[in-house]
Amino acid sequence: MTEAPLVARTTGPVHVIGAGLLGASVGLGLRERGVDVTLEDASPTTVALAADYGAGRARTAADAEPALVVIATPPDVTADVVEGALARFPNAVVTDVASVKLAPFQELTRRGIDLTNYVGSHPMAGRERGGAIMARADLFVGRPWVVCRDGETPAAALALVEAVALDLGAVLIEMTPEEHDRSVGLVSHLPQVVASLTAARLMQASEPAIGLAGGGLRDTTRIAASDPELWVQILGANRGPVVELLEAFSADLAEFADALRDPDQPGAKRRIADLLAAGNTGVSRIPGKHGSAERFAAITVLIDDKPGQLARLLTELGELGINMEDLRLEHSPGAQIGFAEIAVLPEVAERAISDLVERGWRTL
């Protein structure tokens, strides 16, 4: 049976300025729904590469004015590109997907730009590596997409930006620019700094010490592989909220270090326990699969580091009727064995372990 084509809510054509990871991913997702997408970038090679991957086509002088312009450029030029797009395409709705919303809005307001057709937005999606080569049509599926509107935003303009987010599978959230920047400072920008500084401590570590690294270190430092140049821009644009968070974090570290310096002093153990327990409470608030706060049980299965083993494990989980909510793989240094940590619903965890062991799998 032929699969029915996806129907787009978005009214095209859509012009994407900035054909890197986010811009090309927007193009790929909209092209899957049949939307006409044109591309533009300061680098002709970047446009050609994104077009080769199917994210759209290079815009020409003969193309009609787009209905929507999506700006996916670095934060330090976002305001300039938004201003230019509003001037070039006076009848189009213009949105940007920069990770900081207040600074561009304030700069455009300071310049006296008419922002009637501008709607700031930000999809909470990305990858450690950028560029069109890393773009994916499903990059935004199930991810929050923040839309920042004001009282003068026309309903039609807002609807067009929201249509793009929905077509790309994102979950719409409305915030003010101030709310957005404070929020991403906490859930994105602070973790980036902490991960980077933690990973930086590894530079002087010995090889034997590095060989002891496990899942905890990998989880904590995964995002430290992000592009430093981009993060200099993001952190600089959102420096107010980030500095406040870093100062609060520094105070927590100082309190923790003071208690740990002499754990036998009166109240020290309780202070340590309280700070660790606060972490338990905080992590319990992080949304899980599909945006829910539901927590899952983890099952660790030992698998031989040979082709086909992981596929066999996943196949047998399906045969057993066990739905895998998440999967993380870890290799044992110097050994031909790996660990598959599978997240399942708590009520099926015991049965899953029993059934897997019965089929010859080793679990931890």
Question: Could you explain the architecture of this structure?
Answer:
One of its GO terms (biological process) is tyrosine biosynthetic process. GO terms for molecular function: NAD+ binding; prephenate dehydrogenase (NAD+) activity; prephenate dehydrogenase (NADP+) activity. It is an enzyme of class 1 (oxidoreductase). The protein has helices at about 20-30, 45-50, 80-90, 100-110, 155-165, 175-200, 205-210, 215-220, 230-235, 240-260, 270-285, 310-320, 345-360, and strands at about 15, 35-40, 55-60, 70, 95, 120-125, 145-150, 170-175, 295-305, 325-330, 335-345, 360-364. With about 375 residues, the protein is α/β, with parallel strands linked by helices. It has an 8-stranded mixed β-sheet, with helices on both faces. A 4-stranded antiparallel β-sheet has the order 10-11-9-12, with helices on one face. The protein folds into 3 domains: about 15-175, NAD(P)-binding Rossmann-like Domain (Rossmann fold, 3-Layer(aba) Sandwich), CATH 3.40.50; about 180-260, 6-phosphogluconate dehydrogenase C-terminal fold, CATH 1.10.3660.10; about 295-364, 2-Layer Sandwich (Alpha-Beta Plaits).
